[in-house]
Design brief:
alpha/beta, five-stranded antiparallel beta sheet, disordered N terminus
Length: about 600
């Protein structure tokens, strides 16, 4: 059942635990953290109360008996440190153990917490097993401490009574001594029960004691056997023992605790494990350091889980890269296949009628010559035709027909030649790539691409024609994947046309004419036998942020439905991976963009 009270929420759960757990108060301003911790503790049989701020926590403590507090350090308003200080200043709540919840890793923050009276830290993100272990341990420690305190009070009372009635209360004295022995055993039980390995040393780094867990790890049959030994007497390597001695001296000399010393160590049985060690100086009533307390935890499983998670992340990233590459290759293949089939089909259909027309031009000229010869012969034989024939000759302007008809047929021949050139360019653009590079003329590929986009370059009602300026160098035949290079050209040129059209928005026909739209294509061969192709427009340009992402997979600046974000990513893949080259982009916002392609000739 959930109880709401002011800024607090209380979760009531039936408690089935060997110890009288009481209530665990969780103080955190993040609802998700509250839910994770409350669910974890409730599932393990704890009764949980929740406060969302330091103020509401103090209000709850006035009317609720709490056994342990999980307190977030970073909270708005009253933070965890101030809340802890006020709890410890209240005699009613000062003995409640407080475990800080923090994402802070600096030792100074943790030392501040311990100085204010906290008993432990739990770091974010939470490990459920760690949270439960620490809560159980400190509940046990607190309960045992309360029991010990009660026993000490009882012993004190018995001692006072014994001083008054020594002779009469001998038996009571014996009982008090037995109770003291039980207290010592209880204290030993506390150290042996906690899951951490605990040991303590003097100022010379000589062991004064340890718990059962520590003794077992170092191969001792009893904790008493460690007394008088140093790290050099334990199954550590010389390097490890030197490291422990250096850490001890640092803590002793500074008087400051060192937390979360992460290291690898080899156990007596040969197993390599990960350890998380806290070293805390032990001080007397005057603040003088007289020893060191070691609290070590085996974090091998957690470390292995982190390594596995890291490996899984790397595998997923690699799989994503491979998927993106496969997607680009598939899009590239399908796009070029569809476009190639279309263009090749159009070229094929053009060839048939063009071949028919081209094959009949010369016979038509011969027939025309014969007809004109016949007319000349007729005029010689009959120089004075009747009036009707003379009228018809004047009506059709026979002399003009005799002069213009051969020119007309010649124009038809030139038109057929132009159609054949277009068909050749279409076949050049649509040619299928083989599994290896073949020698081809780069300029033919560029020209065939320009031809495909010719309809977009022509003048329209809103703008004059986009000029294509060619600055071609003498290039040898280049071994390349011609079809894929054509795809690079058409992607870059299509983007250039779109950039120019966007820059024309809001400008009049005359304004555009005065600053002519143009695309400049230049080619040259470098001294290092590299082909350099530059495609430059005077369109809209782009800012630096877009320029940095322009080749990213699925990145596009076009509206939904007008761009896939694959064109330039595929272009980069073709130049870099297929042709072992590079593609770069230079752009100035408002002035235009230049793509520079560079790759070896072989």
């Amino acid at each position: 059942m959930i109880k709401l009270s002011g800024n607090s929420i209380t979760f009531d759960h039936h408690v089935t635990n060997l110890l009288d757990n009481g209530i665990v108060l969780i103080v955190d301003d993040v609802p998700n953290n509250l839910k994770v911790l409350s669910d974890t503790l409730a599932h393990d049989g704890f009764e949980v109360a929740i406060a969302t701020s330091g103020e509401s926590a103090l209000q709850q403590l006035e009317h609720t008996t709490v056994s342990l507090i999980l307190l977030d350090v970073m909270m708005p308003g009253m933070d965890g440190f101030e809340t802890c200080q006020r709890i410890k200043a209240n005699p009613k709540t000062q003995n409640i153990p407080i475990i800080f919840i923090t994402a802070l890793s600096e030792s100074v923050n943790k030392v501040t917490g311990f100085e204010l009276g906290a008993v432990d830290y739990i770091t974010k993100p939470f490990q459920q097993s760690e949270v439960l272990a620490r809560v159980r341990s400190h509940l046990k420690l607190n309960q045992l401490s309360r029991t010990l305190e009660a026993k000490n009070i009882e012993l004190q009372q018995l001692t006072e009574q014994l001083e008054q009635r020594v002779t009469q209360r001998t038996q009571e004295l014996f009982t008090s001594v037995e109770a003291f022995k039980q207290t010592q055993q209880l204290l030993r039980l506390v150290f042996d029960t906690v899951p951490q390995w605990v040991a303590w040393k003097n100022l010379n780094s000589v062991y004064l004691g340890c718990n059962e867990g520590f003794a077992k790890v170092v191969g001792l049959s009893s904790p008493d056997e460690i007394i008088g030994k140093s790290d050099y007497d334990l199954p550590w390597s010389q390097e490890e023992a030197n490291f422990y001695r250096i850490c001890d001296r640092r803590v002793i000399e500074s008087g400051q605790a060192e937390f979360h010393i992460i290291e690898q160590s080899r156990r007596v049985d040969g197993k390599l494990i990960w350890l998380d060690t806290n070293k805390i100086p032990l001080c007397d009533a005057d603040g003088n350091v007289f020893g060191i307390l070691l609290v070590t935890e085996d974090i091998t499983e957690r470390q292995q889980a982190e390594e596995e998670l890291k490996q899984q992340k790397q595998n997923l990233e690699q799989a994503l890269v491979e998927l993106q590459q496969a997607q680009m290759q598939l899009v590239q293949s399908e796009k070029m296949s569809a476009l190639g089939n279309l263009v090749a089909g159009v070229a094929h259909e053009i060839n048939n009628p063009v071949g028919f027309l081209g094959g009949n031009i010369q016979p038509a000229l011969d027939y025309i010559k014969d007809i004109f010869g016949l007319v000349d012969l007729y005029q010689q034989k009959y120089p004075n035709p009747d009036a009707e024939i003379q009228d018809e000759i004047a009506a059709i302007d026979l002399d003009y027909i005799r002069e213009d008809l051969p020119k007309l047929v010649g124009s038809m021949r030139e038109g057929i030649k132009r159609i054949r050139d277009i068909s050749t360019s279409l076949r050049t653009f649509s040619r299928a790539d083989s599994d290896r590079p073949i020698a081809c003329n780069i300029h033919d590929g560029i020209e065939s691409t320009i031809l495909i986009l010719k309809h977009r370059l022509k003048a329209s009602e809103t703008r004059p024609e986009i000029q294509v300026i060619r600055e071609y160098d003498q290039l040898p035949l280049i071994e390349c994947f011609a079809g894929q290079l054509n795809q690079v050209f058409i992607n870059i040129l299509a983007n250039a046309i779109e950039a120019i059209e966007e820059s024309n928005i809001g400008r009049s026909f005359e304004q555009i004419k005065n600053n002519q739209n143009s695309i400049t294509i230049s080619t040259k061969l470098s001294d290092s036998k590299q082909v350099i192709i530059s495609i430059k427009d005077n369109g809209l340009g782009m800012n630096e942020e877009i320029r940095q992402k322009i080749f990213d997979h699925l990145f596009t600046t076009k509206s939904v439905g007008k761009g896939t974000g694959l064109g330039l990513a595929i272009a980069r893949q073709i130049i870099v991976e297929k042709h072992r080259g590079s593609i770069t982009v230079n752009s100035t916002l408002g002035k235009g963009t230049e793509f520079v392609l560079q790759f070896p000739i072989i």
